[in-house]
Specification:
Blueprint (H helix, E strand, L loop, with lengths): L1 E3 L5 E3 L2 H10 L3 E4 L5 H5 L12 E4 L3 H13 L4 E4 L15 E4 L6 E4 L4 E5 L4 H8 L4 E2 L10 H6 L7 H4 L6 E7 L5 E5 L4 H7 L8 E8 L1 E2 L3 E10 L3 H13 L5 E9 L14 E9 L3 H12 L6 E2 L2 E4 H6 L10 E9 L4 H11 L8 E6 L21 E9 L5 H15 L18 H8 L1 H14 L27
Parallel strand pairs: 4-6, 5-6
Antiparallel strand pairs: 1-2, 3-4, 7-8, 8-12, 9-13, 10-11, 10-12, 14-16, 14-17, 14-18, 15-16, 15-20, 19-21, 20-21
């Protein structure tokens, strides 16, 4: 079989070696050419067309070790797939071996201790389903089918973050298989340097097979939803959003969106496709207090639709899923903001009027609160000093529109950059971002510390199909562990 070696050069693998590898796995080894290969290979972003030679659908830690040992023995390029939701498509590699964790979905809740152990194939919808039985949640994102590993390892923010911090701030421990095939645990007490790097440094140091999180009291009911206005009122709405969020309690998560109204079941059909500006909110404290906090929003202007009210937290988490359907073409850029200036608002509106696809959007998410109370270098996660983040989220159906739609994203990003902090959220970085953009994500001090950590745990850059932190030196570990 034709393969890609770790250095990117072509190579071959004997079918007998592949057969022996398949026998050692408890999970299934899917080969390029198998009848179900296309379905197994598919990831959320339809723009990603990488074709792994082999996909190991691992069933446990021992399978992960087998896959790493096999790849090391044959100098094979690898990638690691959790939820497969990353916009850059780092879950796949051309011609290499994809270690697919998506079958490892266990979620084990210790309600009394307010902790949960989550395997790396789980999505946040899987986690919420189990933890909400006890009125508990891990602060996560805003799309329920996002995978746990990618969001956590890149930082992770969502509706609960202003009260409880980034997702990685709620990580207590991680189980990881290194490039040497060793299983290690990382926490504040054990391998603390690795624990620091995992909280924001991405998948650069090994395959995380399980996470232990601190749980926060949330739900089961929250006060949340969406209120929409015509795009012609966007200037007034965004200025209101700026003032409203400036004084909002930390129990409120808020997001402003400029886009064509989606064909969502909670919106009247006559609004579908109309250019709108929306404010999406989630208040996760006392419902009566939430109604009081949201009263100024519900009384502002003349909305086209208002679907804000009490709802299950699980419903709030899945509310925006319809706008992020798997298989579309996705291309993103982002910028952190210290503030939303009037000229920033004018720029966002001007770019929203140039939108071509009915699925694309400009999103402005409020940060701050508990996120900013963690020291800038206490974890590797970026954006601690930002009050907002802009995500320019291009999404469209047909590959024939790629050039036009990607140009809109890039043009919008170029227009927004003068207002930004210069940093970037690693989970929003597209496949074509330059290395210097990754440096900007972390800043010099954190990047250099991550590179030193890479020297220790992955000096050969074995884990390179990611937002890659390159080691500062090159050497091969003396030996690779074998499965007993």
């Amino acid at each position: 079989m034709a393969i890609t070696l770790l250095d990117g050069s072509p190579g071959t693998l004997a079918i007998t070696d592949i057969d022996e590898f398949a026998k050692r796995l408890r999970g299934r080894l899917v080969r390029r050419g198998d009848a179900d290969y296309a379905g197994v290979r598919a990831v959320w972003n339809g723009m990603i067309e990488k074709q792994p030679a082999l996909i190991a659908r691992v069933q446990g830690v021992a399978d992960v070790i087998e896959a790493i040992c096999f790849a090391r023995k044959h100098d094979l390029l690898i990638s690691v797939r959790g939820g497969g939701h990353n916009v850059a498509g780092t879950a796949l590699c051309d011609g290499g071996l994809t270690i697919d964790l998506s079958s490892m979905k266990a979620v084990l809740v210790s309600a009394g201790a307010r902790e949960v152990v989550v395997q790396s194939g789980a999505t946040w919808g899987d986690v919420d389903r189990e933890t909400q039985l006890y009125g508990l949640a891990v602060p996560s994102g805003i799309i329920s089918n996002t995978g746990v590993p990618g969001l956590t390892l890149g930082g992770g923010f969502g509706w609960l973050s202003r009260k409880h911090g980034y997702t990685c701030d709620n990580l207590l421990e991680a189980e990881l298989v290194t490039a040497e095939g060793r299983v290690v645990r990382a926490s504040a007490e054990e391998n603390a340097d690795l624990f620091w790097g995992l909280r924001g440094g991405g998948g650069n140091f090994g395959v995380v097979t399980a996470f232990k999180f601190r749980l926060q009291p949330v739900g089961p009911q929250v006060m949340g939803g969406m209120i929409l206005y015509p795009l012609d009122k966007a200037a007034e709405v965004l200025k209101f959003f700026r003032e409203f969020t400036a004084s909002a309690p930390e129990e409120l998560g808020a997001l402003a969106v400029l886009r064509p109204a989606p064909p969502a079941p909670f919106l009247p059909k006559e609004l579908h496709g109309k250019p709108v500006v929306a404010i999406v909110v989630c208040y996760h404290g006392d419902l009566e207090e939430g109604a009081r906090v949201l009263k100024p929003l519900k009384e502002f202007g003349q909305p086209l639709a208002d679907v804000i009210g009490p709802k299950p937290f699980t419903a709030m988490q899945a509310m925006l899923d319809g706008g992020q359907l798997a298989g579309r073409q996705y291309y993103w850029k982002s910028e952190y903001l210290h503030e939303i200036r009037d000229d920033t608002i004018d720029t966002l509106i001007a770019q929203a009027r140039q939108l071509g696809s009915p699925h694309s959007a400009i999103l402005v998410f409020q940060l701050g609160g508990a996120i900013s109370r963690v020291g800038a270098t206490e974890t590797a996660a970026s954006g601690r000093d930002a009050r907002y983040i802009v995500n320019i989220a291009g999404a469209w159906e047909n590959k024939s529109d790629n050039e036009r739609e990607m140009k809109w994203v890039r043009d919008t990003w170029a227009a927004v950059r003068p207002f930004g902090t210069g940093a970037v959220y690693v989970n929003f970085m597209a496949e074509d971002e330059r290395p210097e953009r990754l440096h900007a994500a972390y800043g010099t001090a954190i990047y250099q510390r991550l590179a030193s950590l890479k020297d220790r745990y992955d000096p050969d850059n074995f884990f390179r199909t990611n937002q890659n932190i390159r080691p500062t030196q090159a050497r091969r570990p003396a030996e690779v562990a074998a499965v007993n």
